[in-house]
Specification:
Layout (H helix, E strand, L loop, with lengths): L4 E4 L14 E4 L6 E3 L1 E4 L2 E2 L13 E4 L3 E4 L2 E3 L2 E2 L6 E4 L6 E5 L2 E3 L2 E2 L5 E4 L2 E5 L2 E3 L2 E2 L6 E4 L2 E5 L2 E3 L2 E4 L3 E4 L3 E5 L2 E3 L2 E4 L3 E4 L3 E4 L2 E3 L2 E4 L6 E4 L3 E4 L2 E3 L2 E3 L2
Parallel strand pairs: 1-4, 2-6, 3-7, 4-8, 5-9, 6-10, 7-11, 8-12, 10-14, 11-15, 12-16, 13-17, 14-18, 15-19, 16-20, 18-22, 19-23, 20-24, 21-25, 22-26, 23-27, 24-28, 25-29, 26-30, 27-31, 28-32, 29-33
Length: 240
């Protein structure tokens, strides 16, 4: 943590006046890279039903980008993507994240990342203490493809999908991922809604949903589910 390069939205002691987006980009090409920054204290609290309530840490539209070695922490959004908001007008765009850490980010949907109509690939990423009021404590993936390898989800929460909420995504593929101590009212670890879900060598421990909820580890609604060499231990779901 020595000699960090910090990008901060804290332009005033009053967090209500912090920058809406610490980093933003539009129409970025495949040569775009973001590497080695700490991105913090963005607060996308702009007017309702505008772009200014999305992407407290990073706001991306119609872009291709590779980001590596980032720490994205203490960002928030009134609507979508506390840490990163990633939206595209077509599905040919992609966001790739390598060796990134997301902690203490929050939003209404997608506390860590919101991705729509764009492929999302994550490798060696760690997610802790992120939250969403509704969908996807860490990731809300909609109409996207989602590929995760060697990622860890710990102590994240949401109403639905404490770790991940995948909605109408073309595919969600997870390999060597760990989910522990995540919580939600539905789908403590993952919810896959109309999204094919394939997990290989994944571990789910101590994830939970509250009374009346389903899927302490995984809730699969109208989705195909393939599990290969996975471990589930001490997950819980309560029905009254």
């Amino acid at each position: 943590d020595n000699n960090q390069t910090i990008l901060s939205g804290e332009i005033n002691e009053d967090f209500e006046l912090w920058s809406l987006n610490v980093v933003s980009g539009a129409n970025l090409d495949t040569n775009t890279n973001l590497d080695g920054f700490r991105i913090t204290k963005g607060n996308a609290n702009g007017a309702s039903d505008t772009v200014y309530e999305n992407g407290g840490g990073v706001y991306l539209s119609d872009s291709n980008m590779t980001a590596s070695n980032l720490v994205i922490t203490n960002n928030s959004a009134g609507e979508e993507g506390g840490g990163i908001y990633n939206w595209s007008s077509d599905t040919t765009r992609s966001l790739t994240l390598n060796n990134c850490v997301f902690t203490n980010n929050s939003a209404f949907d997608g506390g860590g990342i919101y991705s729509r109509d764009s492929s999302l690939t994550l490798t060696n990423c760690v997610f802790t203490n992120n939250s969403a009021d509704e969908l996807g404590g860490v990731i809300y993936s909609r109409d996207s493809s989602l590929t995760l390898t060697n990622c860890v989800f710990t102590n994240n929460s949401a109403r639905s999908g404490g770790g991940i909420y995948s909605d109408k995504s073309s595919s969600s593929t997870l390999t060597n991922c760990v989910f522990t101590n995540n919580s939600a009212s539905y789908g403590g670890g993952i919810i896959a809604k109309s999204s094919p879900l394939t997990l290989t060598n994944c571990v789910f421990t101590n994830n939970s949903v509250g009374i009346g909820g389903w899927g302490g580890g995984i809730y699969s609604g109208d989705s195909s589910l393939t599990l290969i060499n996975c471990v589930f231990a001490n997950n819980s779901a309560g029905m009254n």
